Amino acid sequence: MPQKAATVFAELSSTGTPSGAVTKLGTAVVLGGGIAGLLAARVLADHAVSVVIIERDETGDEARPGVPQGMQVHMLLPGGRAQIERWFPGFTVQAVAEGAVLSGTAELAAFSDNARHVRVEAGPHLLGSSRPFLESQIRRRTLALPNVAQVTGRATGLALDTAAVTGVHYLADDTAHTQPADLVVDAMGRASKLSDWLEQAGWQRPDLRRVTTKVNYATGRFVGNGKPVIATAIARFSPRSPTPGLAVAATSLVENNERMIMLAGYHNDRPERDVAKFRERCATVLPPVFAQAADGELIGEITTYHQADSRRRDYHLVTLPARLVSVGDAVASFNPVYGQGMSSAALHASCLSAYLQGAPDLTASAREFFDLQRVVVDAAWEVSTATDLARVRTTPPPPLTRIRRWLRTQVLTASVTDPVIAGRVSAVTYMLTHPATLNRWGTVLRAVAVNKRKRTEQRAAAGSPTATQPASTS
């Protein structure tokens, strides 16, 4: 089963032009005009006479009220960028021309407990920009399609017959409307009301799973002081790290040659909003790239964000009305420190394309879609929640979980120093390959050997009277 999931994930990650039977629809309606909704609309444009996006916020180039995390650091992972490029060829080149920053291995740095990871040669690139910038880039291209339109309104419910969705009710300028639809896509985010609407109409409500994180963010945006060698850096700290009150820090060069810096802590650890204390934290407990990034003038204020939990709705376990699917954070919303949200949304669009290319029975529940989407959700969920559960668990995990955790720890530990393992781990964290690929015996045995050799070298160095201190990293 794990290998099957890895194979499906590889197929969904394809960047080729879709081929196969083309399902034709009259009108498709997307509830929500964020990244997940916009990419779903792009896919639907190949299958519907018209696509209508219903978005409650007025949209432009600024952060929207419906995206409270919009002013925090966002980095588009290579897996997500590849899918966006698939639907909008030339997207990366144009985004970079307008200010986004593409960071390859030479411009990237990763740290674990302030030890710098080995560089992955010829690795994939991350795209750095603010969230509003990236969303506006995608929106502009989506709304330029001749059969896609957006209306400002708040969805209030579904129109249903006995077995299928037939439309959407919404309010616009305090006036009630009903938009007929041949397919409805829920892209309403973490606060989606779809489960409520289904239950009220007599359908089964999907289970909502939560993993408590209580993660707290503080992000500052600073005037750049020249293009640095390191454009993007992330520093992670284990629960045993002596670094007080900090779990993750990230910095990224964004449009207008500006720098964004994010500090994150869990539970009662709340990074400072005071800029002097923020800069002090960057200078005293983080690698030097963070102090350099915080050296410029602060633009605006330090902005904060709190997210209580990661959550997923198991739509694949229930029967829904026909002609209804859900995408993005409305299905699964992860701890943002792992940067998976936008790339997951892009892969959900790939799932929608594969579903519609498969000539589905639109008179039945979209089980084929949710089965495909589950592979993507499981992959992101495994990466993010494994570490979060280790932080919050108060009772010992089952033996099998302990074994799996030990094996994964071996691989992650080896990735700090071994470029081969580092490349394989990066492919998973960048959402290019499925986490099951890290369970292959070749990877696990190599990781164990790397770690054993490292421990032997450390013991030898500790016992040598001529041993020198390791060089500091930056």
Question: Would you give an account of this structure?
Answer:
It is a single chain. By secondary structure, the chain is of the alpha/beta class. The protein is built from 13 helices and 19 strands. The strands form 4 sheets. The chain has an 8-stranded mixed sheet with strand order 6-5-14-15-16-13-17-19. Strands 8-2-1-12-18 form a 5-stranded parallel sheet, with helices on one face. Strand 1 (25-31), helix 2 (35-44) and strand 2 (48-55) form a beta-alpha-beta unit. Helix 2 packs parallel to helix 9 and helix 9 packs antiparallel against helix 10. The model is unreliable at 467-474 (pLDDT under 50).
Descriptive labels:
alpha/beta, FAD/NAD(P)-binding domain, 35% helix, 24% strand, 474 residues, 3 domains, 5-stranded parallel β-sheet, 13 helices
Major sheet strand order: 6-5-14-15-16-13-17-19
> What's the level 1 CATH class of the largest domain?
Alpha Beta
CATH superfamily of the largest domain: FAD/NAD(P)-binding domain
Shape: globular
CATH architecture of the largest domain: 3-Layer(bba) Sandwich
Largest sheet composition: 8 strands, mixed
What is the topological layout?
Elements (H helix, E strand, L loop, with lengths): L1 H11 L12 E7 L3 H10 L3 E8 L19 E2 L1 H10 L3 H7 L3 E3 L4 E5 L2 E2 L9 E3 L2 H13 L4 E5 L1 E7 L4 E8 L2 E6 L2 E4 L7 H7 L7 E16 L8 E5 L11 E7 L3 E9 L8 H10 L3 H6 L9 E11 L10 E3 L5 E2 L7 H17 L9 H26 L6 H16 L4 H11 L11 H23 L11
Parallel strand pairs: 1-2, 1-12, 2-8, 5-14, 12-18
Antiparallel strand pairs: 3-7, 4-7, 5-6, 9-10, 10-11, 13-16, 13-17, 14-15, 15-16, 17-19
